[in-house]
Amino acid sequence: MKFSEVLYDWGAGAGRRVLHRTPFLPEKARRSVEARQKLVARIQNWAGEHRTDGPLVWFHAPSVGEGLQTRPVIEALRKLRPELQVFYTFFSPSAEKFAAQMPVDYADYMPFDVVADLMLVMEAVRPDVVVFGKSDVWPNVTRVASWCDVPLALVSGTLAESSSRLRWPARRLLTPAYERLSAVGAISVEDAARLALLGVHPDRIEITGDARFDQVWARAQALDPSQPPVVLLAGHDGLTLVAGSTWPEGEKHLVPAVASLRSRHRNFRALMVPHEPTDDHLRRLESHLDVDGLEHVRLSELEGGSGDLKEVIVVDRVGMLGELYALADIAYVGGGFGKRGLHSVLEPAA
After folding, report:
1. Residue 149's CB: how many other CB atoms inside 10 A?
2. Which residue, 24, 41, 253, 312, has most beta carbons within 10 Å?
3. pLDDT, tens only, 109-119
4. What pTM does this model have?
5. Edge-to-edge strands of the sheet including 296-298?
6. Residue 12 clears pLDDT 80, i.e. is over it
7. Weakest-pLDDT range from 39-43, 99-103, 234-238
8. CATH architecture of 3-221
9. Taken in order 77, 78, 79, 83, is the CA torsion positive or negative?
């Protein structure tokens, strides 16, 4: 085992211990830790009751965006091999509700990248192949898979030119994991070259494009405005702004712009869709709306019958942004303010 792997292994274990012992964590981190309590036992129980002797593919996508990229691959596999079982993991709490709607046999959090837990999961699930989405390749998952002779693949592989993965120390720590990949479908020639720099053998890379293109187009064409919750928002006869994947850094600029549009257009409304609709984030956004005199209601209140339509609807769930963009006359895509990076413009373009 390389020194970089020893160092990573130590860091992963230490990081998990620190998270478990820290009393005051941000809401998202706290949920991430709490959700992994008895995670291995949950997976073992599912495998004990439902794992067949047939083939199984383990897909991992860290959050919703990567999940949308893996979904068309999963659906295609289901059509080709109906008997195939699919085990799906994610990392971010923001993907929890999305994962529950995936066409898979079982979905749950990815265990923290610690060898002991991963060995138990690998032995219980017995995957025939592990497939990562986009670029989220976990070093210890690849180590354990290689020990068990399980092939590794990457779909919709992409790596930005500015990615920290290409710089020290991340590159030193991650290269062994990327070297273990047996097959990679890269989004572009440029992504393929950068993935090769990170350790993927060039002869294992094919340019396949972004599977999310297919998913986004299919969702846009299949939109049924008569289905909930879209039916609650469809049929508006004025100007509609859909602000998707918003972050606090951008909302401080966006909310005054919404107020300005409201003052200039009769029957204007805005659908504001935070990227991470945590309670803290929602409260801060609603406070900004109050300061600018904008009446607002949460989507969950509309669905529950406890609220009426307002000029701003705050969408307090994930996984439906593609459907909401179809209602837009104007779209705002979040992430451009600050250092997070602009989110995908595919969905509003579709």
Report:
1. 6
2. 312
3. 999 888 999 99
4. 0.72
5. 296-298, 312-314, 269-274, 240-246, 330-333
6. no
7. 234-238
8. 3-Layer(aba) Sandwich (3.40)
9. positive
Nearest to 42 by CA among 88, 109, 129, 126: 109
Q: What is the DSSP string of 162-189?
A: T-GGGSTTHHHHHHHHHHT-SEEEESSH
DSSP class of 330: E
Q: How confident is the model at residue 13 (pLDDT cuts 50, 70, 90)?
A: low
Whole-number average pLDDT of the chain: 89
In terms of CATH, what superfamily is 230-349? Glycogen Phosphorylase B; (3.40.50.2000)
Which is it for strands 240-246 and 205-207: parallel, antiparallel or unpaired? unpaired
The Cα diameter of the chain in Å comes to 66
Phi, psi (deg, nearest 5) at residue 158: -150, 150
On the question of a common fold for 3-221 and 230-349, the answer reads: yes
Q: Which two tokens stand for residue 146?
A: 């290689």
